[in-house]
Amino acid sequence: MTCWLALCRIKSSGHENLNSKQSYVFVANHQGAFDIFLIYGFLNQNIKWVQKASLRNIPLVGFASEMAGHVFVDNSSPAARANTIREAKKKMTDDVSIMLFPEGARSRTGKLGHFKRGAYQIAYDLRLPIVPLTINGPFDVMKRGSLCLKPNKLELIIHKPICTENLNECDIPTLIDESRKIIHSALWEKFKD
After folding, report:
1. How large is the angle between the packed helices 172-185 and 118-126, nearest 10 degrees?
2. What kind and span of H or E run contains 137?
3. What burial class does residue 124 get, using C-beta atoms within 10 Å of its C-beta: 0-12 exposed, 13-18 middle, 19+ buried?
4. pLDDT averaged over the chain?
5. Do 1 and 36 form a contact (C-beta atoms < 8 A)?
6. Please, which pLDDT band fits residue 3 given cuts at 50, 70 and 90?
7. Among the listed ranges 5-9, 92-96, 157-161, which one has the minimum average pLDDT value?
8. Cβ(24)–Cβ(98) below 8 Å
9. Which of 91, 17, 19 is nearest to 51 (CA)?
10. Residue 37 has pLDDT above 80, yes or no
11. What is the pLDDT of residue 1?
């Protein structure tokens, strides 16, 4: 609804790639604040976000995230990161999926940044399929650091799941590269490197 209130035209595709009875680890590029509204409004999945611990300190966001049962990442040590994975496991049921932005923060340019390992470690540890999502447009709607909205086209592309069941931990870098390439392939030209 927020996307429509901002007068954005929205296109979503790839829903046929998902099984409503399967849990997934969703990974998406992070162009801007409207990514979140686009995912909530058009992914049509029961998700728990894995998000930066610093978001807990934002008055309304932190409270709402706590109440919704989202997971906060503590990157202060390997033990703290392992605790985040344990916390994510506790949140999982048959119809709950995990959602992460592997870049870790919103893009300053709209282009795809470096992917961190955390989402892929969670998928590997939980033996859940990774589903890459490509998001186009939120960078143009509201740039990072701005409160000005500019109506624009938004697009959410749901790619086919990538199986993690037969992978070894040493395969995680390949999994990261594969999903990053898939996401990059569907970016609008102006957002490609």
Report:
1. 120
2. none
3. buried
4. 88
5. no
6. very low
7. 5-9
8. yes
9. 91
10. yes
11. 47
H or E stretch covering 174: helix 172-185
Structure tokens of 152? 């624009």
Question: Cα–Cα–Cα angle for 115, 69, 178, nearest 5°?
Answer: 20
Topology of the domain comprising 2-191 = Glycerol-3-phosphate (1)-acyltransferase (3.40.1130)
Query: Is the pLDDT higher at 4 or at 30?
Result: 30
Domain boundaries, the chain: 2-191
State yes or no: pLDDT of 166 exceeds 60. Answer: yes
Cα four-point dihedral sign 172, 38, 153, 18:
positive
Strand arrangement of the beta sheet that strand 130-136 belongs to: 9-13, 153-158, 130-136, 25-28, 96-100, 46-52, 71-73
Structure tokens at 31: 């162009």
